[in-house]
Design a protein that fits this description.
CATH class of the largest domain: Alpha Beta
Shape: elongated
Radius of gyration: 44 Å
Number of domains: 4
Structural class: alpha/beta
Largest sheet: 6 strands, mixed
CATH topology of the largest domain: Rossmann fold
CATH architecture of the largest domain: 3-Layer(aba) Sandwich
Length: about 750
């Protein structure tokens, strides 16, 4: 593995983290918010499920009324005294005196109660009843206090206990005095229940907290997979293996910091389910990280936008978490082992299921980690899958990277197969010159070219599904250490051809060779460097100096030599004042300067420049031209431009492309003599105000009516003037001087 690539990507990822700290803080806040929520749930349960002491008094009955029924007072000598004590005690407990209803026998009492229920004419509730039984004499001893309590049989447990206790209190007072009493209470110990419930609920909250850091992990891979930055780095020698390793290391560091912080918060707040399983929970938190991060990497290929992808991924993970809950309800928590193995393939479900097994085991039930590996069959499955998923998703990630390139190539060629005739007809509509035919013959017969393009085509489809021959059977050869120009209007196929040469997109048909080696084979990526048409390959959150450091590491350049080269490029392109600003803060022109500088930075012998001066002012454009001339004869250049003057002054040979086809090719002098029919006037405006744009257009309309606006940009305009119009308009050059003064 290339260690310099590893260091380069780690440097880039860490720099991006520092610059995008706000998004990291938000994701970290969400993770900690779920941690706080879990702690709040724990304390809420403590308050709701606290130990309850329930003393039994007359007001302990479920339905306390002032009605008490009494039977058999004639059977017991001391009944009046006991009734008086009952009367006083009831008053002390309830705050009012009871109403007694007397019956001679319990049969009468029972009949009265029944009729009262049926007719609903008596009191709605009766608190309790007291029945005095006959005194019993045995062996010359008389047994007193032979009393029966009557209670509501609808609430057997509570009312029976309350009745018994209150009768005992009456008898106690009859023996030890009216002011004496005792307290009989039942304490419901809810701590165990609280710990158990938290152990069941907390895993879901904890897992949601860990899942909420997904935006930190997935956003950069989505951007890189779908954007131009990673593809450009690959064209500058980056290998995918160190790219993913470096990305994984940084993400794993973030994971370790956040999960340890959450774990310490649980510990600091004394959450029993955590403190009784300290090592077990820490192990599960830590070991879920690698497989979860790799799982997220594999999923990143499903999304095209980081902004929407992060939200969708979080939603998918949460929905997946709910699936086992519904399955548990349906199966009444008797989940088959086969289903648990399936759950195990999803790391975040795994941590939720393992924590469910661990956190309910507190106090005397707590177990060491080996127990969950050996004896707990459910946890065993998830712990095994935690380890298995690491190589599994690493392999899947490698397969995805390999197969997507293979698929792109196969799809590109497969689609072309049914459109071969369409391409031939399209090319027939654009007849080519003898010079183009001669180039085709030379390239097919000779291998003496640095870049050899043979019958290359590229098929695209528009939004309506109609085929577009972006590049149509192009055959070209670029000699070593020459400067070859590609001329053509927008949409002629120049940029598409450049992207195929750099392997950014695969050709639909044909072959491309660099120094005699097919680019689909193992090609040394340091041979080529490119300045793309647009600046989307630059990292918005990195400065120009940081870009040079990144590519110094990728190219493995000597530090001192690279530093001197960096300063020379910065000075040449007048980037000194902007070298420490992020790309996002740079103007379009300064971004373009950086893009050009990077293409000259590496050791590549073949440099592809796709409209390198498109947004540069005349001074900066001249600097770029000087850089190209400085390396003339030392490097092979391919220059895409729409400026004939630029191609004429720089290129050894030029090809003109029309509708994806090579119309002609030759030296600038030869083509100018044969096809030079118009002049180009390139106007750079001081600003992009509408007023200035209109003023410029009116000037040409009034003074150079033959000029036609061919290319329009916010601060630039290019006009085409027929050569005969210039020849017969003596004031043409005077007007050009006036344009310089005005605009």
């Amino acid at each position: 593995m290339e260690s310099h690539h590893l260091r380069a990507i780690m440097f880039r990822r860490w720099t991006l983290f520092k610059r995008s700290y706000k998004s990291i803080v938000i994701s970290s806040f969400l993770a900690l918010l779920f941690t706080v929520l879990a702690i709040a749930v724990n304390y809420l349960m403590k308050s709701l499920l606290s130990d309850k002491v329930e003393p039994f008094r007359f007001n302990s009955f479920l339905h306390t009324s002032d009605q008490i029924v009494i039977s058999g007072t004639d059977n017991y000598t001391g009944s009046d005294n006991l009734v008086n004590i009952l009367n006083q005690t009831f008053y002390e407990d309830v705050g009012q005196y009871p109403t007694f209803t007397y019956f001679d026998t319990r049969e009468e009492l029972n009949e009265w109660m029944y009729e009262n229920i049926v007719s609903k004419t008596g009191p709605e509730y009766v608190t309790m009843g007291v029945g005095f039984n006959n005194e019993v004499t045995f062996m010359n001893y008389t047994y007193y206090n032979n009393i029966t309590g009557f209670y509501n049989s609808s609430w057997v447990r509570n009312e029976l206990t309350s009745t018994r206790v209150n009768l005992m209190r009456i008898l106690w007072k009859s023996v030890f005095g009216i002011d004496s009493d005792f307290t009989y209470s039942i304490t419901n110990l809810m701590q165990k229940m609280q710990d158990f419930i938290f152990g069941a609920l907390a895993p879901m909250l904890i897992t949601c907290g860990l899942v909420s850091i997904v935006p930190i992990i997935i956003s950069q891979p989505i951007i890189d997979v779908n954007g131009d930055v990673r593809q450009y780095m690959i064209s500058c020698s980056l290998k995918l293996f160190p790219y993913w390793i470096a990305t994984f290391i940084i993400d794993m560091i973030i994971w370790i910091i956040l999960v340890n912080l959450a774990w310490l918060i649980y510990f600091a707040f004394g959450i029993t389910a955590i403190t009784d399983n300290l090592f077990n929970t820490w192990y599960v938190f830590m070991m879920t990280g690698p497989s979860f991060i790799l799982f997220v990497y594999c999923c990143s290929f499903m999304f095209s936008s980081a902004e929407s992808g992060t939200r969708q991924m979080f939603l998918i993970l949460v929905i997946l978490l709910l699936v086992p809950l519904f399955v548990d309800i349906i199966t009444q928590y008797d989940t088959p082992h086969e289903v648990n193995w399936i759950y195990g393939f999803f790391p975040h479900i795994g941590i939720q299921r393992i924590l469910t097994q661990i956190l309910v085991k507190v106090n005397i039930l707590k177990q060491s980690l080996p127990y969950y590996f050996k004896d707990d069959k459910v946890s065993q499955i998830y712990l095994i899958m935690q380890l298995t998923n690491i190589p599994l998703y690493a392999i899947i990630l490698c397969i995805i990277e390999k197969i997507r390139i293979w698929i792109h190539r196969k799809v590109a060629r497969a689609k072309y197969g049914s459109y071969g005739e369409f391409f031939n007809k399209a090319k027939a509509k654009h007849p080519v010159t003898e010079e183009a035919h001669q180039m085709e013959m030379n390239v097919k017969e000779s291998f003496d070219y640095a870049v050899r393009i043979i019958d290359c085509s590229r098929l695209f489809f528009n939004t309506s599904g109609d085929p577009i021959p972006a590049v149509n059977n192009v055959t070209l050869g670029i000699k070593e250490n020459s400067i070859f120009g590609f001329l053509g209007a927008n949409g002629a196929g120049k940029t598409t051809l450049i992207k195929m040469i750099t392997s950014m997109i695969p050709p639909s048909s044909g072959t491309i060779e660099i120094n005699g080696v097919d680019i689909t084979k193992n090609q040394d990526s340091q041979i080529l460097s490119i300045c793309p048409q647009f600046n989307s390959h630059l990292c918005d959150e990195m400065t120009p100096r940081e870009h040079f450091k990144l590519y110094r590491l990728l190219y493995k350049l000597p530090k001192d030599e690279a530093q001197k080269h960096t300063e020379r490029l910065i000075e040449t392109l007048e980037l000194t004042k902007h070298a420490d600003k992020t790309v996002r803060e740079l103007s379009g022109g300064n971004q373009r300067k950086l893009a050009v500088a990077l293409s000259f930075y590496g050791p590549a012998k073949i440099v592809l420049l796709d409209e390198p001066t498109s947004s540069l002012d005349p001074v900066a454009r001249r600097h770029v031209h000087d850089m190209i001339k400085e390396h003339r004869g030392q490097k092979t250049f391919m220059l895409c431009t729409h400026l004939l003057s630029e191609a004429e002054s720089l290129c050894d040979n030029i090809s003109i492309m029309v509708k994806g086809c090579v119309y002609t090719c030759g030296t600038p002098q030869y083509l100018s003599q044969k096809f030079g029919t118009e002049f180009k006037i390139d106007v750079m405006l001081k600003n992009d105000l509408d007023e200035n744009n209109i003023k410029c257009d009116e000037f040409f309309k009034n003074n150079l009516p033959d000029a036609k606006l061919s290319i329009l940009r916010p601060k630039a305009r290019i006009y085409s003037i027929p050569s005969n119009a210039v020849r017969y308009n003596k004031k043409c050059f005077w007007y050009l001087l006036k344009i310089i003064k005005l605009f």
